[in-house]
Amino acid sequence: MRVLDARRFGLACATVAVAAGLVVAGCGKQVPGTATTDAAEVAAYKTAAAASSSAAASSKAAAAQAKAITDNCTQFPITTGAGVTAFNDFVTAHDGNAPDYAAKREAAAGTLDNAATKVETGVTAAAGALPPELAEKFTAYVVAARELSAETRKMTYTSQVAKLNDASRKINKARTEVHDACSSR
User: Fold this and answer.
1) By the 8 A CB rule, do 155 and 179 touch?
2) Euclidean distance between CA atoms 177 and 173, whole angstroms
3) Which of 63, 67, 167 is nearest to 109 (CA)?
4) Quick check: 135 and 123 in contact, CB under 8 A?
5) What is the C-alpha radius of gyration for the chain, rounded to an integer number of angstroms?
6) Residue of 71, 109, 74, 75 lying closest to 90 (CA atoms)
7) Which end of the chain has fewer CB atoms at under 10 Å, N or C?
8) Number of Cβ atoms within 10 Å of the Cβ of 9
9) How far is CA 11 from CA 8, 14, 25, 76, in A?
10) What is the mean predicted confidence (pLDDT) over 152-167?
């Protein structure tokens, strides 16, 4: 059996390394010419980047809209329910000539104003994320609640109730329209 000579082996390895280095060094030469872009590829890249950006913006807008709808529609029945209860308490006190009539009148008006403010604040906080038709329904409720509040404050035992009843019908209609619009989403 032959023994491997370390000197010959080292010389062989050095020769292979030098040859490999020359090959690699030969690949490192500069290519003459001017760098250019392929206009078709640039246009395709820009189109793909714009589509990706548009999709991201659309997705963000859809998420903001879903959150705005959920936030406003979830709170609406709770917020406005307090106004309904307070107004009904006032009507009962008015119809029964109750001694706490004035206090119930003010409580109803204040609760209606508070509900209008909360609904309005929710629409404002949505910053345009609510669909316009839903935002209009919320706004119609706000207007109707403030109108009913104003008519409620004008009431005395001897007042005519026609304007109060008209305002009550408007708020009921507006509240139902919001409820229906929220339920359909």
Assistant:
1) no
2) 6
3) 167
4) yes
5) 38
6) 109
7) N
8) 10
9) 5, 5, 21, 88
10) 94
Residue 71: name the closest of 22, 118, 4 by CA: 118
59 vs 45, 55, 63, 66, 128, CA distance in Å? 21, 6, 6, 11, 15
Contact partners, residue 157, CB within 8 Å, separation at least 6: 94, 97, 101
In Å, how far are 12, 65, 77, 135 from 140, measured between CA atoms? 92, 20, 15, 9
Q: CB-based contacts of 154: which residues, under 8 Å, 6+ apart? A: 163, 164
CB atoms under 10 Å from CB of 41, counted, come to: 9
| 16-53 pLDDT, tens digit each | 766 666 666 656 666 677 777 777 765 666 666 565 66
C-alpha distance from residue 24 to each of 13, 16, 179 (Å): 16, 12, 75
CB atoms inside a 10 Å sphere around CB 78: 10
Amino acid at the residue 4: L
Contact 73, 67 (CB under 8 A): no
- If residue 80 lies in a helix (H) or strand (E), which one and from where to where? helix 39-95
